[in-house]
Amino acid sequence: MTNKRIMVVDDDKEFLEELRETLVLSGYEVKTVSDACDAFPTAMRAKPDLILLDLKMKGMTGFEVANKLKNYSGTMEIPIIAMSGFFTADEDDTLLSFFQIQNYLRKPFNPLDIITRIENIFKENQRRKN
Q1: Which architecture does CATH list for 5-129?
Q2: Degrees, nearest 5: CA angle 118-122-125
Q3: DSSP 3-state assignment of 76?
């Protein structure tokens, strides 16, 4: 089992709960945030090892959240996986790169895909540190 902390930001509360369950069953500690405006302060307090971030939310977009996270020294190193059923990776590749989003998943996705992506990012980051 892992003790990695993951923060999930999505305004779809049903999706948020399903994803939280999947991650908990995979051994992760999970903090959920359903209001994009709460994502930055929550990340500062929770210090997650990775953030799963919906790109299209009410109030503040995932791009705006990513921008705040990547421009603050206390959160800039946290990897972000973007999730969206609206945007496509091809359409927004430049934006994803600009906001330093490490990976992208198109909704709906298979729960195993998200676990694989998370594990790959953790492995890649560990290799960089060694």
Answers
A1: 3-Layer(aba) Sandwich (3.40)
A2: 135
A3: coil
**Encoded tokens for 74:** 């206390």
Question: Phi/psi of residue 101, each to 5°?
Answer: -85, 125
**Token output for 60:** 């503040």
C-alpha distance from residue 114 to each of 72, 78, 91, 119 (Å): 26, 17, 21, 9
Q: Where are the alpha helices (DSSP H) in 26-129?
A: 39-46, 62-70, 93-98, 111-129
pTM of the model: 0.89
> Is 78 strand, coil or helix?
coil
d(CA 57, CA 103): 18
25-79: pLDDT as tens digits: 999 999 999 999 999 999 999 999 999 999 888 888 888 999 999 999 999 999 9
